[in-house]
Amino acid sequence: MDWARDLKDWPLSHLSHRIRHRPHDWHVQETGEGPTLLLLHGAGATTHSWRDVIPPLAARHHVLALDLPGHGFTRPGSRARFGLTKTAEDIATLCDAQGWQPEGIIGHSAGGAVALDLATRLTATDGSPPRLVGINAALDRFEGVASWLFPALAKMLALNPLTSYAFAMGGARPDRARNVIGSTGSALSEESLSYYARLLSDRDHIDGTLQMMANWNTDALWQRMGDITAPCLLITGEKDKAVPPDVSVRAAQKLPNAETRQLAGLGHLAHEEEPERVAKLILDFCDNTQR
Fold first, then answer.
1. I want to staple 11 with a disulfide (CB 3.0 to 4.6 A). Which of 35, 51, 119, 269 is the partner?
2. Predicted pLDDT of residue 65
3. Which among 251, 238, 3 has a CA at the least distance from the CA of 113?
């Protein structure tokens, strides 16, 4: 997406600014005062996914939301820096350079896995690990033949320069977005679908999403879960068709200080379906949970 042309009518664009910190050119939205909360969207999304969650959080917190490398308006500086571990490393170095010490890290889907990894790299202002909130966190690996077929397919597609053109052909069609979002178990408004339609028509965004998928692996994260002592709330949507709720249940059994909360009637994009409800859960957990 073109920064100057497209950002001006993007959700909460008045909060946006650019940070050039190697290896990426980051798009960050920042608002509010108080303890810092860092928001990480999922694969294929951008900061727009948090547009209705940010205002209630910012009433009590300093809120940071960023586009992951290759997504939306964050331009990747290296194609070798995609994947879970390297994404977490690069966000951690960005936080260190900016002097950000999140009291809480909130991640949706793939962003939930990045949040868990960041808990071992960042500390809050008192030196303790930040509180973690995962929303339908994509923590698991594929099973069986899919464990090698899906990543291999994504890698093959990502290596083909024509792939992103093919995915983006047809422009910003709401019907395409409606089919994609519907397959996750969520029902979004027409306005929400229009943002995903624009993303689905953007070649660079599609390429960044594919690169992330091609390099995604959570095996090392599962092996380290017993060492992640940060307080953790794993929120699941009952109707999530993208990441089964039992993934969070199993993760909570391995994490030393975790709890789960299932939201009835909501799908993978629960924070977009009922943002005020999700924001309240985040605030209650981050403000009231003892470390």
1. 51
2. 98
3. 251
- Alpha-carbon gap, residue 134 to 139, rounded angstroms: 10
DSSP class of residue 35? S
Block residue for tokens 């951008």? 46
Alpha carbons 233 and 123: distance in angstroms, whole number: 17
Query: How many CA atoms, within 13 angstroms, populate the side-chain half-sphere of residue 122?
Result: 32
> How many angstroms separate the Cα of 60 from the Cα of each of 55, 94, 134, 148, 195?
9, 23, 20, 44, 27
Cα 225 to chain centroid distance, Å, stands at: 19
The answer to whether the CB of 88 falls within 8 A of the CB of 114 is yes
Q: What is the largest CA-CA distance in the chain?
A: 51
SS3 259: strand
Distance between CA atoms of 31 and 102, rounded to whole angstroms? 14
Mean pLDDT confidence for 254-281: 97
Instruction: Give CATH for domain 3-141+217-288.
Output: 3.40.50.1820
Domain boundaries, the chain: 3-141+217-288
DSSP 63: E
Whether residue 165 has pLDDT greater than 70: no
Radius of gyration, alpha carbons of the chain: 17
Give the CB-side neighbour count of residue 127, counting CA atoms within 13 A. 0
Which residue, 242, 283, 252, 245, is CA-closest to 45?
242
CA distance linking residue 97 with residue 21, whole number of Å: 8
3-state DSSP percent of the chain in helix, strand and coil, to 5? 45, 15, 40
